[in-house]
Amino acid sequence: MASFAKDTQVKLPRPTRVKNKTPAPLQITAEQLLRESRERQESPILPPHQNITDPTELSEYRLRRRKEFEDRIRRPGPSTQVFVNYARWEESQKDYVRARSVWERALARDYKNHALWLKYADFEMKNKFLN
User: Fold this and answer.
1) Rounded to an integer, what distance in angstroms lies between the CA atom of residue 100 and that of residue 90?
2) Residue pLDDT, tens place only, 59-76
3) For residue range 92-114, what is the model confidence (pLDDT) as tens digits?
4) 8, part of any domain
5) CA end-to-end span of the chain
6) Domain that holds residue 115
7) For the region Disordered, what residue ranges are annotated (predicted)?
Protein backbone atom coordinates (compact mmCIF):
# COMPACT_ATOMS: atom_id res chain seq x y z
CA MET A 1 0.00 0.00 0.00
CA ALA A 2 2.85 2.37 0.77
CA SER A 3 4.45 1.74 -2.63
CA PHE A 4 1.18 2.73 -4.38
CA ALA A 5 1.15 6.17 -2.71
CA LYS A 6 4.82 6.58 -3.57
CA ASP A 7 4.16 5.81 -7.27
CA THR A 8 1.31 8.32 -7.62
CA GLN A 9 3.12 11.31 -6.15
CA VAL A 10 4.10 14.02 -8.60
CA LYS A 11 7.72 15.04 -8.40
CA LEU A 12 8.19 18.76 -8.85
CA PRO A 13 11.53 20.37 -9.63
CA ARG A 14 13.39 21.92 -6.77
CA PRO A 15 12.73 25.67 -6.48
CA THR A 16 15.70 27.78 -7.49
CA ARG A 17 16.88 30.66 -5.37
CA VAL A 18 17.19 34.16 -6.74
CA LYS A 19 20.77 35.28 -6.33
CA ASN A 20 20.49 38.95 -7.21
CA LYS A 21 17.50 40.53 -5.43
CA THR A 22 18.21 44.14 -6.40
CA PRO A 23 15.73 45.74 -8.80
CA ALA A 24 16.73 45.98 -12.43
CA PRO A 25 17.84 49.43 -13.59
CA LEU A 26 15.26 49.35 -16.40
CA GLN A 27 11.81 48.14 -15.32
CA ILE A 28 9.52 46.49 -17.87
CA THR A 29 5.77 46.99 -17.54
CA ALA A 30 3.07 44.55 -18.52
CA GLU A 31 1.95 47.03 -21.17
CA GLN A 32 5.40 46.92 -22.77
CA LEU A 33 5.35 43.12 -22.77
CA LEU A 34 1.94 43.06 -24.45
CA ARG A 35 2.98 45.66 -27.03
CA GLU A 36 6.12 43.69 -27.90
CA SER A 37 4.20 40.44 -28.20
CA ARG A 38 1.69 42.09 -30.57
CA GLU A 39 4.51 43.47 -32.70
CA ARG A 40 6.16 40.06 -32.97
CA GLN A 41 2.92 38.24 -33.64
CA GLU A 42 2.51 36.99 -37.18
CA SER A 43 -0.47 38.21 -39.14
CA PRO A 44 -3.21 35.60 -39.59
CA ILE A 45 -3.29 33.84 -42.92
CA LEU A 46 -6.39 34.93 -44.79
CA PRO A 47 -7.92 32.94 -47.64
CA PRO A 48 -7.51 34.58 -51.03
CA HIS A 49 -10.29 36.81 -52.29
CA GLN A 50 -12.38 34.93 -54.83
CA ASN A 51 -14.39 36.39 -57.66
CA ILE A 52 -17.47 34.46 -58.70
CA THR A 53 -17.62 34.29 -62.46
CA ASP A 54 -20.56 32.08 -63.46
CA PRO A 55 -23.99 31.05 -62.10
CA THR A 56 -22.80 27.54 -61.21
CA GLU A 57 -20.06 28.92 -59.02
CA LEU A 58 -22.53 31.32 -57.39
CA SER A 59 -24.96 28.52 -56.59
CA GLU A 60 -22.12 26.43 -55.09
CA TYR A 61 -21.05 29.40 -52.96
CA ARG A 62 -24.61 29.96 -51.73
CA LEU A 63 -25.04 26.27 -50.95
CA ARG A 64 -21.77 26.21 -48.99
CA ARG A 65 -22.71 29.32 -46.98
CA ARG A 66 -26.18 27.96 -46.21
CA LYS A 67 -24.67 24.71 -44.98
CA GLU A 68 -22.28 26.65 -42.72
CA PHE A 69 -25.18 28.63 -41.23
CA GLU A 70 -27.34 25.53 -40.77
CA ASP A 71 -24.47 23.71 -39.04
CA ARG A 72 -23.98 26.65 -36.67
CA ILE A 73 -27.71 26.72 -35.90
CA ARG A 74 -27.70 23.02 -34.98
CA ARG A 75 -24.92 23.48 -32.42
CA PRO A 76 -26.04 23.48 -28.80
CA GLY A 77 -26.38 26.80 -27.06
CA PRO A 78 -27.93 30.11 -28.00
CA SER A 79 -28.14 30.57 -31.75
CA THR A 80 -30.22 33.75 -32.02
CA GLN A 81 -27.35 35.80 -33.44
CA VAL A 82 -26.60 33.05 -35.95
CA PHE A 83 -30.22 33.21 -37.14
CA VAL A 84 -29.96 36.99 -37.49
CA ASN A 85 -26.72 36.76 -39.46
CA TYR A 86 -28.18 34.02 -41.65
CA ALA A 87 -31.36 36.00 -42.39
CA ARG A 88 -29.37 39.14 -43.18
CA TRP A 89 -27.10 37.16 -45.50
CA GLU A 90 -30.14 35.76 -47.33
CA GLU A 91 -31.49 39.30 -47.57
CA SER A 92 -28.18 40.47 -49.05
CA GLN A 93 -28.52 37.70 -51.66
CA LYS A 94 -31.96 39.14 -52.56
CA ASP A 95 -33.62 35.85 -51.61
CA TYR A 96 -36.42 37.33 -49.51
CA VAL A 97 -38.48 34.14 -49.30
CA ARG A 98 -35.59 32.29 -47.66
CA ALA A 99 -34.78 35.28 -45.46
CA ARG A 100 -38.36 35.38 -44.20
CA SER A 101 -38.22 31.63 -43.56
CA VAL A 102 -35.06 32.04 -41.47
CA TRP A 103 -36.62 34.90 -39.48
CA GLU A 104 -39.72 32.79 -38.80
CA ARG A 105 -37.61 29.82 -37.68
CA ALA A 106 -35.72 32.13 -35.32
CA LEU A 107 -38.96 33.47 -33.89
CA ALA A 108 -40.35 29.96 -33.48
CA ARG A 109 -37.32 29.05 -31.39
CA ASP A 110 -37.10 32.28 -29.35
CA TYR A 111 -40.52 33.94 -29.54
CA LYS A 112 -40.03 35.92 -26.31
CA ASN A 113 -37.03 37.84 -27.65
CA HIS A 114 -38.25 41.40 -28.29
CA ALA A 115 -35.09 42.45 -30.13
CA LEU A 116 -35.58 39.58 -32.57
CA TRP A 117 -39.14 40.71 -33.30
CA LEU A 118 -37.92 44.26 -33.91
CA LYS A 119 -35.23 43.07 -36.31
CA TYR A 120 -37.78 40.97 -38.18
CA ALA A 121 -40.15 43.93 -38.42
CA ASP A 122 -37.26 46.08 -39.64
CA PHE A 123 -36.55 43.50 -42.36
CA GLU A 124 -40.18 43.55 -43.46
CA MET A 125 -40.39 47.36 -43.51
CA LYS A 126 -37.02 47.86 -45.20
CA ASN A 127 -38.04 45.60 -48.07
CA LYS A 128 -41.57 47.06 -48.24
CA PHE A 129 -43.40 43.84 -47.40
CA LEU A 130 -46.18 45.66 -45.57
CA ASN A 131 -49.89 44.84 -45.73
Assistant:
1) 9
2) 999 999 999 999 999 998
3) 999 999 999 999 999 999 899 99
4) no
5) 81
6) 55-126
7) 1-25, 37-57
